[in-house]
Sequence to fold (226 residues):
Amino acid sequence: TQLLEQSPQFLSIQEGENLTVYCNSSSVFSSLQWYRQEPGEGPVLLVTVVTGGEVKKLKRLTFQFGDARKDSSLHITAAQPGDTGLYLCAGAPSYSNYQLIWGAGTKLIIKP
Amino acid sequence: KAGVTQTPRYLIKTRGQQVTLSCSPISGHRSVSWYQQTPGQGLQFLFEYFSETQRNKGNFPGRFSGRQFSNSRSEMNVSTLELGDSALYLCASSLAGPSAGAQYFGPGTRLTVT
Fold:
């Protein structure tokens, strides 16, 4: 069974600071997705990374897929209160095209 | 294009009862996945349907079941409810499957079992 470990579980920082969230596994994933979820809503897809070593940028968010496709990171530059939410990573396992393996999430609070 | 809708949004049931939740996917999407979300647990995969066929099932007891209709709408049923079934139940739709492309989530059904 493939697992995804997400860290940290909780992060509270001041507006303007930088942060990185990690998603790690001992197994290879064919792709990895990052989502953000706000209270009372379902997760919203931010990005999908597919190629080992791939880097994608979404405004102040930078996503990286590890060379071996076992890990990924999300870096936020100059965090803003609007970035507050639960960040989830989800990997497509090698044994199934019909499900995703989910990390437990990182709860991020950006204080003004 | 309308998003994924789930009904009801909130539900309170007592132990032993059964419940049916409904999910209407985005028009044209044939894959519907169901998840259970509890605090600190992330999303736990329940099952995935594509064109009325269950293609994959997570590690949940047989009390949890689902189905998909010809119009891609899906329902999940939980029988003999237990306190531990209290959770946010999310459904997500996609064109071909959860790992094949973008997945779009509904707002969820908040189930409370007393």
